[in-house]
């Protein structure tokens, strides 16, 4: 009985933590993008890009680039952590990210730009 009660509290804590992360904050969106790539969900990953990125590259080219990135993630053993630091206020944020992998690959560092479109944070171009 004690184990079931302890598990129930653990589940409630996880649920609360998950709900606190809801609402498409920039960091949540960025991590979601990489988790979609890790799962091989190219269409879902592409949805994390702004309309301007889709306008410049088109869905087919964007998908090809994402497939290369997803392959790299798989070769690196999957994602261990996604760390993102952003600056700015309002609907535009800029910063740096570091993606660490479960395997032997070195961390991947990149500059990040995000914009809020229709209430959701999207990856953009700098």
| Helical segment count | 4
Q: In percent, how helical is the residue content?
A: 40-55%
The first-to-last residue Cα distance is 55 Å
Outline the biggest β-sheet: 4 strands, antiparallel
Binned strand content: 25-35%
Could you tell me the number of beta strands? 4
Question: Would you spell out the secondary-structure blueprint of this structure?
Answer:
Layout: H1 2-20, H2 26-39, H3 42-46, H4 51-75, E1 79-87, E2 92-101, E3 108-117, E4 120-124
Antiparallel strand pairs: 1-2, 2-3, 3-4
What does this molecule look like?
- The protein is α+β, with helices and mostly antiparallel strands and 126 residues long.
- The chain is 50% helix and 27% strand.
- The chain contains four helices and four strands.
- The chain has a four-stranded antiparallel sheet, with helices on one face.
- A hairpin with a 4-residue loop joins strand 1 (79-87) and strand 2.
- It starts with a helix and ends with a strand.
- 16% of the residues are buried.
- The model is unreliable at 1-23 (pLDDT under 50).
Summary, kept brief:
The chain is α+β, with helices and mostly antiparallel strands and 126 residues long. Helices cover 50% and strands 27% of the residues.
Keywords:
4-stranded antiparallel beta sheet; globular; alpha+beta; 126 residues
């Amino acid at each position: 009985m004690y184990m079931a009660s302890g598990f129930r509290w653990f589940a409630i804590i996880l649920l609360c933590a998950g709900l606190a992360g809801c609402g498409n904050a920039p960091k949540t969106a960025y991590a979601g993008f990489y988790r979609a790539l890790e799962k091989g969900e190219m269409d879902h990953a592409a949805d994390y890009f702004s309309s301007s990125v889709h306008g410049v590259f088109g869905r087919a080219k964007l998908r090809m680039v994402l497939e290369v990135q997803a392959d790299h993630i798989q070769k690196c053993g999957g994602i261990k952590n996604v760390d993102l630091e952003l600056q700015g206020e309002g609907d535009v944020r800029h910063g740096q990210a570091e993606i660490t992998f479960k395997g032997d690959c070195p961390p991947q560092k990149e500059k990040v730009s995000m914009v809020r479109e229709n209430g959701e944070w999207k990856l953009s171009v700098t």
